[in-house]
Amino acid sequence: MNGQLDILTDRYPCLAVCREDIRKAYEVLEQAFSAGRKLLVCGNGGSASDSEHIVGELMKEFKRKRKIYGDHAAALKAIDAELGQVLADNLQGALPAISLTSHSSLQTAFMNDAAPELVFAQQVNGYGKPGDVLLAISTSGNSRNVLYAAVNAKARGMKVIGLTGSRENRLMTLADVCIRVPETETYKIQELHLPVYHCLCLMLEDRFFGDAA
Q1: Domain span holding position 98
Q2: Residue 14, C-beta contacts closer than 8 angstroms, at least 6 positions apart
Q3: 168: helix, coil or strand?
C-alpha cells in the first residue's frame, strides 16, 4: 500500500495533503471486498466518465495478471470441456463494482416517472446492501443527485467515500472518508481525481491479485 502511495506523491507532490485520506479510503474498500461486498460509483459529466473508468480497472486486469486458477477453472471445464477451457484461459479475476451512470433505460424511466435528482439514490436502493461502499464523485461536493445517493447509502448501512475538490462541501459531511484534492477549478480537480483513483485501484489489485494473494 505505502509503495503505491509513495509513487503517487512522488509524481504528484500536491497530493501529499490527501495521502492519509487515500489510505483511509483504501482501507474501507479493502475491508468491503474482503467481506465479499461490492462498490457502487456515481458522478456527473466528467465524473460519470471517471465512474466508468474506475469500474473498468476493478472488473478486469489493470496492471497485474488475474488469471483464473484452481477450483474455478476445474469447475468450468467439468461443465463443458471445450467452452470451459476457453473460459479458464481468458476469464480474469474481478472486484465487484457497478457504475450507476451506465443504465440509460432505468435512468431515463425513473427521471421521467419520478424525481430526476434521485436517479442515483434509486439505484443505491436496488443494489446497495449493508457493508457495500458508495464512491461518490463530485468536483464541487454539492451535486444534489450525488448527495441523495450518499444519504441513502448511509441509511442502507453502506460506507461512503467522497472524491471532491478542496473547498468545504456538503458531501464531506456525509462521507466516512472524503478525499479533497487541492484544486478548485473543475477541470483541474478532475485532472487530480484520475491519479487518486488509479492509486486506489493499484493498491487493491496488489492486495487481491498480488503474488502472495
Answers
A1: 2-65+94-209
A2: 182, 192
A3: coil
